[in-house]
Amino acid sequence: MSQNFKEIFKNLDEKTSKHLIKELLRIDIEKPFENVRKILCIQPHPDDCEIAIGGTLAKLSLEKKEIIYLTLTDGCFGTNDPSIKPEQLAKIRKEEQERAAKIIGIKKLIWLNYKDTELPYSPDVRNKIISIIREEKPDMVLAPDAWLPYEVHPDHRNAGLLATEAVFFSSLPNINRIDLEKGLEPHEVQLIGLYYTSKPNFVIDISDTFNIKLNALKEHKSQFQNNWGFLVMYLQGIGAFYGKKINTEFAEALKIIPKILLHIVPIVEII
Q1: Closest residue by Cα to residue 146 from 167, 176, 174, 169
Q2: SS3 for 207?
Q3: How far is 43 from 171, CA to CA, in rounded Å?
Q4: Residue 15 CA: distances (Å) to CA of 22, 44, 262
Q5: Which of 54, 128, 223, 224 has the greatest number of CB atoms lying within 10 Å of its CB?
Q6: Average per-residue pLDDT in the chain?
Q7: Whole-angstrom Cα distance, residue 133 to residue 40?
Q8: What is the largest CA-CA distance in the chain?
Q9: Distance CA 247, CA 122 (A)
Q10: 85: three-class secondary structure by DSSP
């Protein structure tokens, strides 16, 4: 290691680390979607992609990026109404998500249909996600941040862990080797973007697509019809909070991590 390289690491901060990644890995974290054509957005429940980054997804869709939703659970327990049975709600939520996705510009939705609140953290689920990555061959994966402080919902924590592990392992042929027999080759995903994150390193202007986000979320009537005003205020507040960071009306935030930094890199948090 050269003396200059040692000095860089001694003074490493977010700005310096982004520059270092750009120089060494040829990955520009400040422009993560620039060379991306296909995105797999993984969500624990129907509606999570739109709540977290609906404006971003609408913007990318308008830029002709291909986006696929992968929903891991059926959302069957997401109600305070005892008159609605779980199987009824699962059907309702799937239909709501299909309508909302259409507004965002999503043409393909994949469902794993695990029961709400019971998403297993297991090699079996991870392998299913790996197979989908190998089949769809996305350039980038978006998923919830499993390390969000105080996140109480197990589906969110498990979804984030499963997604990041699947990204890391999808290029290794001996993991879920049965894929080779099915004609699914290992696939390298260079970047993952974590939403619902407390440690964002990328903020994107969604002022022009914020209303598209709201229109999509309106389709989730089973979730938001009774508290729509509160949800709008919340999303406007979060959007304005991030918007202030880049001098715009509304914005959303992600933690962008190159796949190569997902293992044994203690300084990844400062990126």
Answers
A1: 167
A2: coil
A3: 22
A4: 11, 32, 19
A5: 54
A6: 93
A7: 8
A8: 69
A9: 42
A10: coil
The tokens describing 40, both together, are 């797999």
Give the full edge-to-edge strand order of the sheet including 191-195.
108-114, 66-73, 38-43, 140-144, 191-195, 251-258, 202-205
For tokens 């619902």, name the residue. 196
| 195 or 12: which leads in pLDDT | 195
Look at 264 and 125; give whichever has higher pLDDT: 125
What are residue 108's phi and psi, to 5 degrees?
A: -130, 130
Instruction: Go through 140-159 and write b for each residue having 16 or more CB atoms within 10 A of its CB, e for each that does not.
Output: bbbbbbbbbeebeeebbbbb
Question: What letters, b where the CB count within 10 A reaches 16 and e where it falls short, cover 42-51?
Answer: bbbbbbbbbb
Q: pLDDT digits over 190-244, tens only?
A: 999 999 999 999 999 999 999 999 999 999 999 999 999 999 999 999 999 999 9
Tokens of 29: 């974290």
Rounded Cα gap, residues 73 and 51, in angstroms: 16
User: Residue 2 burial (CB < 10 Å; 0-12/13-18/19+)?
Assistant: exposed
Please tell me the distance from the alpha carbon of residue 164 to that of residue 83, in angstroms, as a whole number: 37
Q: What's the token pair of residue 196?
A: 């619902």
CB 119 within 8 A of CB 158: yes
Phi-psi region of 196 (alpha: psi -120 to 50; beta: other; left: phi over 0): left
Q: Which of 11-20, 84-93, 210-219, 253-262 has the lowest mean pLDDT?
A: 11-20
Cα(first)–Cα(last) distance of the chain, in Å?
Answer: 21
Task: Please name every residue paired with 256 in a beta bridge, in sequence order, or none if there are none.
Answer: 193
* Per-residue model confidence (pLDDT) at position 187: 98
